[in-house]
């Protein structure tokens, strides 16, 4: 079919594909069905290799149950589940693609055992995976691993500065396998975002100058203009990116679609999640800092997220001795008398206590948050059940190397990300779990393509995207 003006196929992994990339979404929100179909439609499908699902002999999903007693042993179980699941997903996606398009895998560098998982998956899928996208952290070792398995690599960055650091430290040695650089807009993309301390979460910046700056860095380092920059975050209609296509200032550009593929026949997310996407309004996706990774991330502002916002608002600073303005002894929510707060905060604490938030939990920042007995029990149980799904976890103080602890107090303002993502992806309550989405998700409600509850197949979606809509 003829594509939107100026959009041409690119050569990737030895064949022509459309410069349209399916975003590889975290835990089980992208799987073999969606990725295989995206590749079969001529694009680059991305299997999520983050704790992906495996199947039993009857084709049923194997629940990821952890039996080991220690976190370290549960972490080993997690790595095994992750490798088995991703290998299974890649094989199935490759079969569905039928030799068309390409299959990538996506890993988060900040996931627990990321390197072991990536090596384990690539070892068992030789010849099936064309490239690896990787973000959430600074994946310096990505190029070295790609070289070992002879696959392309596509780092995910949100600034030219981040790319320069990766290039100078490691990537210049494996320049021939750098297939593309994914620019993930920190204000628009769903999931974990690379907002730096220099950037204001409340002040989105226009992506064009940032992508041009990234291209300038790539040129300065000798990277060819034929290596595409993949624009990720906020991409809906290609016609809105008209002046990016075939633009000599930017060099080759490809586009990543993360949110739109959620609402397709092949998308593995549960029906309730799909239905909810149709109801969102502008502003319903919140850029927040509750993730145990420490990164900003974007998710639907549902009751789960609102409860975390409210929990952080029931928070007061304290000191262990009477000092400065901390002249009042805290007499609710804590055992012992060695907690000193301001008189004003003492009044607030008593009010929360009276409203049922009777337990004060300490945070690593010398503050306390007030929670109900149910919340406290859930927080403590989740922290106890930690299976080490991150390289560093703020919620449980787990670290996946050396002495296995971050050395910081576990943070009750956060949550167990593995539990909630597994739950929502497998049919759990959409109000009680984290629901990742990009900030353009409100457009499902506005886009006539989705009217009358129409849900496209992946092929119909890709064909539609190629028209400019």
TrEMBL record:
SUPFAM superfamilies listed in its UniProt record: Inosine monophosphate dehydrogenase (IMPDH) (SSF51412)
Protein name, per record: 2-nitropropane dioxygenase
GO MF annotation terms: dioxygenase activity
Domain of life: Bacteria
Keywords assigned by UniProt, alphabetized: Dioxygenase, Oxidoreductase
Pfam families reported in the protein's UniProt record: NMO
């Amino acid at each position: 079919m003829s594509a939107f003006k100026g959009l041409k196929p690119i050569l990737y992994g030895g064949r022509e594909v459309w410069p349209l990339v399916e975003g590889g979404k975290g835990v089980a929100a992208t799987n073999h069905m969606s990725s295989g179909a995206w590749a079969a439609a001529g694009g680059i499908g991305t299997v999520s290799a983050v704790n992906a699902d495996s199947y039993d002999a009857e084709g049923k999903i194997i629940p990821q149950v952890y039996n080991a007693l220690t976190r370290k042993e549960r972490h080993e179980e997690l790595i095994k589940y992750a490798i088995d699941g991703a290998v299974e997903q890649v094989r199935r996606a490759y079969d569905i693609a039928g030799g068309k398009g390409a299959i990538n895998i996506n890993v988060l560098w900040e996931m627990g055992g990321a390197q072991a998982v990536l090596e384990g998956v690539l070892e068992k899928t030789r010849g099936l995976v064309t490239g690896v996208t990787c973000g959430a952290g600074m994946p310096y070792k990505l190029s070295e691993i790609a070289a070992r398995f002879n696959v392309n690599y596509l780092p995910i960055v949100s600034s030219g500065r981040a790319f320069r650091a990766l290039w100078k430290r490691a990537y210049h040695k494996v320049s021939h396998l750098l297939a593309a650089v994914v620019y993930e807009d920190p204000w628009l993309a769903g999931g974990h975002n690379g907002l730096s301390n220099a950037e204001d979460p409340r002040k989105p910046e226009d992506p064009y100058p940032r992508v041009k700056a990234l291209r300038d860095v790539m040129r300065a380092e000798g990277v060819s203009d034929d290596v595409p920059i993949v624009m990720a975050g906020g991409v809906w209609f290609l016609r809105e990116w008209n002046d990016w296509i075939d633009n000599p200032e930017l060099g080759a550009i490809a586009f990543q679609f993360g949110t739109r593929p959620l609402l397709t026949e092949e998308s593995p997310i549960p029906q309730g999640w799909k239905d909810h996407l149709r109801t969102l309004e502008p502003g319903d996706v919140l850029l927040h800092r509750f993730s145990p990774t420490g990164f900003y991330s974007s998710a639907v502002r549902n009751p789960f997220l609102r409860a975390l916002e409210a929990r952080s608002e029931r928070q007061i600073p304290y000191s262990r001795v009477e000092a400065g303005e901390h002249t009042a002894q805290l007499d609710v929510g804590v055992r012992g008398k060695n907690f000193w707060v301001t008189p004003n905060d003492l009044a607030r604490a008593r009010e929360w206590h009276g409203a049922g938030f009777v337990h004060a939990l300490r945070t690593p920042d010398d503050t306390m948050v007030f929670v109900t007995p149910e919340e406290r029990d859930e927080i403590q149980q989740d922290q106890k059940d930690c299976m080490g799904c991150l390289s560093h976890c703020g919620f449980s103080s787990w670290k996946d190397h050396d002495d296995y602890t971050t050395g910081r107090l576990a943070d009750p303002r956060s949550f167990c990300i593995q539990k909630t993502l597994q739950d929502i992806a497998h049919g759990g309550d959409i109000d009680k779990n984290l629901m990742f989405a990009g900030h353009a998700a409100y457009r499902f409600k506005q886009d006539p393509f989705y009217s009358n509850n129409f849900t496209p197949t992946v092929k119909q979606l890709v064909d539609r995207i190629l028209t400019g809509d």
